[in-house]
Amino acid sequence: MNSKNIILLVDDDELDVISVERSLKKLDQDYELFTAYNGIEALEILKSQLEEGKGHLPDVILLDLNMPKMNGIEFLKVLRGDDKLKHLKVFVMTTSGEEADRKATEQLGVSGYLIKPLNFNNNTKRSDSMDGFVQFHLRKILASKGL
């Protein structure tokens, strides 16, 4: 069994990927980060883990909604329809505050919904919400793996 925590980040925005990577570095836990830039790539990563018999599926998936090729909601539908993958914990991280997106993801069994804040004064993304999520929620999820 792999003792390292596995996180799958599915996001097409390179700045968001960098922000998540920076926040994760502050964790005091060992983890391995896989990155996919759309839902199709994410499914390929997950299925390769199953096919190779590794069984090292992610402990948590961090999912953006607005992506090319296969968006986050389409990805969630496929994930929840697969008996080997439907149990995975998924946290949505998106700029979308749309009620329809929240309801759709809630119906698809997400563990949480985090709106990526933007600082419109200097057009840079704020990392404080991501840091808070990593330090308070993600740390707890990854720590529970050892139970």
UniProtKB/TrEMBL annotation:
Keyword Transcription regulation: no
SMART domains in UniProt: REC
Pfam (any one): Response_reg
Domain Response regulatory: 6-131
InterPro entries: CheY-like_superfamily (IPR011006), Sig_transdc_resp-reg_receiver (IPR001789), TCS_response_regulator (IPR052893)
Keyword annotations from UniProtKB, A to Z: Phosphoprotein
Name the record gives this protein: Response regulator
Species in which this protein is naturally found: Paradesertivirga mongoliensis
4-aspartylphosphate modifications at: 64
